[in-house]
Amino acid sequence: MPDKHRTGTVRDINGPIVTIDLPGVRSGEQVRIGEIGLVGEVISLSGQQAVVQTYEGTDGVRPGEPAMGLGWPLSVELGPGLMGGIFDGVQRPLSKIALQSGDYIARGLDVPALDRSKQWEFEPSHDLEPGQAVGPGTVLGTVQETEVVVHKVLVPPGIQGELEEVAPAGEYDIESTIAHVRDAKGTSHRLSLYHRWPVRRPRPYHQRDDGVSPLITGQRVIDTFFPQLKGGKGAVPGPFGAGKTVVQQQIARWSNADIVIYVGCGERGNELVDVLESFPKLEDPYSGRKLMERTLLVANTSNMPVVAREASVYVGLTMAEYYRDMGYDVVMLADSTSRWAEALREVSGRLGQMPVEEGYPAYLSSRLAAVYERAGRVETHGAGSGSVTLIGAVSPPGGDFSEPVTSHTKDIIETFWALSKELADARHYPSIDWVTSFSGHVHTAAEWWHEEVDRRWEQRRTEALALLARDAELSRIVNLVGPEALSDAQRWQLEGAALIKEGVLQQSALDDVDTFCSPDKQFALLDLALSIYDKGMALIEIGVPVSELADMPQLAKARRCKSMYNSDQVAEIRTFAQEVEQAFEGIRLEYAKQSVD
Ligand SMILES: Nc1ncnc2c1ncn2[C@@H]1O[C@H](COP(=O)(O)OP(=O)(O)OP(=O)(O)O)[C@@H](O)[C@H]1O
């Protein structure tokens, strides 16, 4: 233990929950437990006794060992050096830890998140003068954190006053003094390139703004059918193996956010290894450099107990808010909030609290809501608008969406991308079910699409969903009485829906051309599918048999267009649409001629 200052004694150990005697300890305070110095946090107090949840295994710790209060709540370090980092659930840098203790994290390790020795090139803001009034969000200067991220060095929340001095341009480590600010009481505050922030306290902002532009993910079923806004909150619930991780990775990789934060929260070890191995290899499609230059990962390692997952979501969110405060659009992916909720359940069970639904405590929904509440688009204190988009994967046991975590999440979020086992089994990817998914952002997104892409976007989207709903009804009839019972018009509706499903909704993450689809290409493909359907229906209405249309080679090509033409080749898709139109016109003329003959 580093210090005997304010020490107490371990009384009782119940898995990750430890009771200690420590006079003067506060709720939420960080403590170190036992000779080994395990990290933990006070979650309840009763007289001199405190109940602590530890973020590391308590094996070997015995009653009577010391416990020490650190005097501050669970906090993270915020400053240059976060980008590209891989941290554990309490923000310890995994790569450094591996150097110190090998692949398995030794317990009680105390490694700061940010590198103390690295020098950063600080460029002070040119418009700053000593004597000037500054406050939270004032940009003191910048540091080029990576090739693609300019890190704004801001006056941290809570500091307000007169600027005494700001450091000249030069190289500084994160602990060097960058500025001094004298507050109204005359106290001088020394500011450096980093500060600490308690993870459970949302970082302040000037005011909330409504989201205005969609988060473009390049995934058609998301952008075109169930859009998300920058600053929105969304969930991806899905049964085992339905594709949650792929959806999240596609968003991380392709979305037009400035910063990506991926919190691997208690998913199986091999999946986490996969994420940790795959992310550093990914190329940033916007800069051509490594995606990790604007990404950071938080990963619960397999030897951390379940309660560490609980902290990791807040750790990720606080870092997301920090970059939001610089005016960036941040997307944070939490995989998965079910595992996070299990941590709540475990702790509440060990505390003997009354379980409400399936063992979860009564505060499950309020905790979930508080987490999602930290998403949003805001007017920051000094750096313009910034946003945190929060997308949580949910892994309901047995794929049952009525279980508590999924159902409470559904009430909180605005965008719900429900993955379906049937679609995944049929290898229809992404397996986002168009019947049960929803987005509360369609009208706002429509303004963007109408302005930037095509004025018919919302109308076309509605037509496609109506056709898919009709398809579901007709498929039920076919299952009952067979396809012969359908009219030619109904069969053509099935063909039209199949074209939407295969040509628009299905999108392979593994297809080099189709893995990302620009908004223009998304609309061109949707419009192509619907025009084919509309033109075909007009022919059926004048008596052309459906078999003649269903065999047209153009239909097969329309299904493949997504992989034949990349996002820059929208003109080619439109040319093909004209060819199809001519083919239909040919049939119409021929049929009209036959009728006359
Ligand atoms: N968009 C996609 N394109 C191509 N293949 C996909 C896509 N989505 C999912 N898959 C396939 O489905 C497999 C399982 O996906 P994934 O690992 O994302 O599922 P999961 O829901 O995260 O699983 P788990 O329940 O184990 O966490 C992938 O390995 C891949 O083969």
From TrEMBL:
Belongs to the ATPase alpha/beta chains family. T3SS ATPase subfamily. Residues 111-200 form the ATPsynthase alpha/beta subunit barrel-sandwich domain. The keyword Aminoacyl-tRNA synthetase does not apply. Residues 12-67 form the ATPase F1/V1/A1 complex alpha/beta subunit N-terminal domain. CDD domains: ATP-synt_V_A-type_alpha_C, V_A-ATPase_A. Its EC number is 7.1.2.2. Gene3D superfamilies: 2.40.30.20, 2.40.50.100, Bovine Mitochondrial F1-atpase, Atp Synthase Beta Chain, Chain D, domain 3, P-loop containing nucleotide triphosphate hydrolases. Keywords: ATP synthesis, ATP-binding, Cell membrane, Hydrogen ion transport, Ion transport, Membrane, Nucleotide-binding, Translocase, Transport. This is V-type ATP synthase alpha chain. It catalyses: ATP + H2O + 4 H(+)(in) = ADP + phosphate + 5 H(+)(out). Residues 218-439 form the ATPase F1/V1/A1 complex alpha/beta subunit nucleotide-binding domain. It comes from Thiohalocapsa halophila. InterPro entries: ATP-synt_VA_C, ATP-synth_a_Xtn, ATP_synth_asu-like_sf, ATPase_a/bsu_AS, ATPase_F1/V1/A1_a/bsu_N, ATPase_F1/V1/A1_a/bsu_N_sf, ATPase_F1/V1/A1_a/bsu_nucl-bd, ATPase_F1/V1_b/a_C.
